[in-house]
C-alpha cells in the first residue's frame, strides 16, 4: 500500500473524460517512488484523508493505454 500525499476533485476534465466528471486524482508515496493516478469511484471524496493508506491497481483502457486506480486495501 501507499500513503496518500495529495488529492484533488476534478470538475472539468480533458476531452474524452466529460462523462466521468467529477472524479478524483491523487498522489501516493511508496517510499522509493511516487504514483499519480485516479481514485476509485468507490471512495467518496469526503472519505479521503492525507496519510491514509491506499493500494494501486493497474487498468487497461479500451485504447490499450494503462492507468492507475487507487482503492482501499
UniProtKB/TrEMBL annotation:
Cited InterPro entries: NA-bd_OB-fold
Protein name per UniProt: DUF35 domain-containing protein
